[in-house]
Amino acid sequence: MAAAPAEPAQIAEEGAGALVRGEAQAAVYNYTEALKDTALPNDRRAAILNDRGVANVKLGQTRQAFEDFNLAAQLFPEFAAVYNNRGNLLLSLGLPKEAIKDFDRSLVLAPGYAAAYNNRAGALMRLGQTEDAIDDYTKSVKLMPANPAPLSGRGLAHLKLDRPQAAIRDFSRAVRADARFAAGYRNRAEAKLEVESFDEAIEDLSRAIAFDPNHAESYLLRGRAYLSVRNMASAIKDFSKAAELDPRNAEAFAERGFAYALAEVNEEAFTDLNKAIEIDPRSGLAFAYRAHAYKRSGQIDVALRDIEVAQKLSPSVPEVYWVRAEIEEAQGQTEQAIADLRKAQELRPGYRAAGESLQRLGAAPQQAEEREVAGAGVDTWRVVARGKRFFAMDDRYARLSVPLEMLGSGQPKLLEWQIKEAPFQGIGTLRFFAGQSGKDDIEMIAVVDFQAGVVVAVEPHKQGAKVATWSWDAGKVTVASVDGVTDEFDLRAGAGDAMAGAVGGRRYTTTQTGAWAPWDSPLGGGFEQPAPKRVKKKSKTLFDLLFN
């Protein structure tokens, strides 16, 4: 006796299962078979079309995916997920303005749609509307506080706005939500490189590589970190791996060439630097590094030609000014060299190579040239500016330098210093004004271990009328901060991760509360297929990635 034909619902379920397993072609086949049932109600047909659209995206069938999403929207205009998915497809095609229209429609239909906020934030980032993107990422974070995607996205936005400490805070939360989140470790390492925490950056990049061993950018970043601490052998090994994984990566060849030059392996240095320029003739970094190699080999005239090209191509790259200063020093032009080194440090506060060169020339590094901000202190604490960044200092705690990062307009102002009582001896909190966003004042609180000279965390405390909730109990502090995440810090010395690039040798165990739901990539662009509310029997929910 012949088997009875499968029901459309069963066929669609088989399609969903195939898509979850990564078998997109089989998924399209099953969804197409299910759609042959002429008795399907519009909402159910829209759900299957939406799912088939996601499968077609995975297959690179853009036109077919658009047709599926468009027809699904026509059949069931109240289906929020289809607008989110179509918006992601538009975003992947470089059409962020059109994508935002779809995300807007999705959010009108489903105001609590965390994925749509996250994805709209990604589109706003493409348009350079970074503060607006942070607002959307924050809405997504508040809806799904332990999901790494919006946390990582917001971290990238903070990094773009030169807020490395805020970025580190969000990336740390992201990797606590998913301990295998390679992109989160990679992004946090990039932020740590910005604040010259090279050893911590190397540690993060090693984790990223362990979870994603074929990502060229991780090796490139770790190579730079090794180069910064002058571990030439490890740097060259990592740059070589990056070049192996991505043979058209001009930066990998430029960085390896620079490392070879520093190691005085001149033939390999020039081979790599010439290769980098061949791959990307507009790489100011490659020309600067080749100029440095020529300078080291005594060919000053050729070095001058290369550094002139580098200056024209990349006038905002600090390495260009550092190399030009090295050439000027070789020519005996000390004052010009110092001016260029200061420019390099202005572009990258705390730039170690520039600081070392300034010391060698008898000039104080920019870090030492700090100015006090009048009227910004509290108690015996004062605020100092180093370049574009601010820090709180107190002569009683010589090892402490508390970063005061601005999250809005204005300059920082210290508001309150409190020393905790038992059982939190040695712990203090420093509350400060961190800028104005719209009409809202923003306040942060730094938790410091002043005995160990460690900044444990810097947490968002107040924005407008919203105030964080702080709970101190059993050697821990739990902070339900105003940016949508609850963090917990074990204030007893532990082997965990420090939230905010801590100074000193002591670390603190940190945990994060909230439910985990894997639904997106770190930059947004997640495709989703939740069943419409009208469907009586819901199909499986699938969260898929557009950006791998």
Tally of DSSP β-strands: 15
Tally of domains: 3
Which percent bin holds the helix content?
40-55%
* End-to-end gap: 47 Å
CATH classification class of the largest domain: Mainly Alpha
Order of strands in the sheet with the most strands? 5-6-7-8-9
CATH superfamily of the largest domain: Tetratricopeptide repeat domain
The best one-word shape is: globular
Q: How many helix segments? A: 21
- Largest sheet data: 5 strands, antiparallel
Low-confidence stretches: 494-509, 512-525, 529-548
Percentage of residues in DSSP E strands: 15-25%
CATH topology of the largest domain: Serine Threonine Protein Phosphatase 5, Tetratricopeptide repeat
Give me some keywords for this one.
4-stranded antiparallel beta sheet, Serine Threonine Protein Phosphatase 5, Tetratricopeptide repeat, 5-stranded antiparallel beta sheet, alpha+beta
Short description:
Helices cover 51% and strands 16% of the residues. The chain has 21 helices and 15 strands.
Report what the structure shows.
With 548 residues, the protein is α+β, with helices and mostly antiparallel strands. It folds into three domains: 8-144, Serine Threonine Protein Phosphatase 5, Tetratricopeptide repeat (Alpha Horseshoe), CATH 1.25.40.10; 161-368, Alpha Horseshoe (Serine Threonine Protein Phosphatase 5, Tetratricopeptide repeat), CATH 1.25.40; 371-512, no CATH class. It has 21 helices and 15 strands. It has helices spanning 8-20, 24-35, 42-58, 62-75, 80-92, 96-109, 114-126, 130-143, 148-160, 164-177, 182-194, 198-211, 216-228, 232-245, 250-262, 266-279, 284-296, 300-313, 318-330, 334-347, 352-360, and strands at residues 371-372, 382-386, 389-393, 402-403, 413-419, 427-437, 440-449, 454-463, 466-467, 469-473, 476-480, 486-494, 507-512, 526-528, 543-545. The strands form four sheets. The protein has a five-stranded antiparallel β-sheet, with helices on one face. Strands 1-2-3-4 form a four-stranded antiparallel β-sheet, with no helix packed on it. A hairpin with a 2-residue loop joins strand 8 and strand 9 (466-467).
